[in-house]
Amino acid sequence: MNNGQHQSLAGVTPHLTIGEKRAKEAIDFYKAAFGAEQVMEPHMAEDGERIMHAHLHINGGSLMLNDDFPEYGQAAGKPAAVTLHLHVDDADAWFSRALKAGATETMPLADQFWGDRYGQVTDPFGHRWSIGAPVKQS
């Protein structure tokens, strides 16, 4: 954790809205499933119940998330059609860890024609994650 110091963000950073006041649960899931590390303690809303902003690092990249805030026109119902991709060193290990943490297999992990071992899972909050790594040569 970075004790509240902001780190610069490069490229595109996904920012997820988590419904039903489950952002804390999502943070815990992403730690267990994908080895996420908190960059800082989450910023709480004035109601003391909802997370307004959380910043995580997963596999060298940033992920931001928050609870939904319908009063600001931000609702979380069904997530938008997006897939978050993780390019990792060992797809089998990452895929297995995600399933053990509570993800649901959406596309079985398999060797693909483009040279990656690739599969997809859906997290308990409705977001789809793809996991891929170069096929290991024996």
Automatic annotation (TrEMBL):
Residue span(s) of domain VOC = 12-134
Task: Write down the SUPFAM superfamilies for this protein, in alphabetical order.
Answer: Glyoxalase/Bleomycin resistance protein/Dihydroxybiphenyl dioxygenase
Full protein name: VOC family protein
What taxonomic ancestry is recorded? Bacteria, Pseudomonadati, Pseudomonadota, Alphaproteobacteria, Sphingomonadales
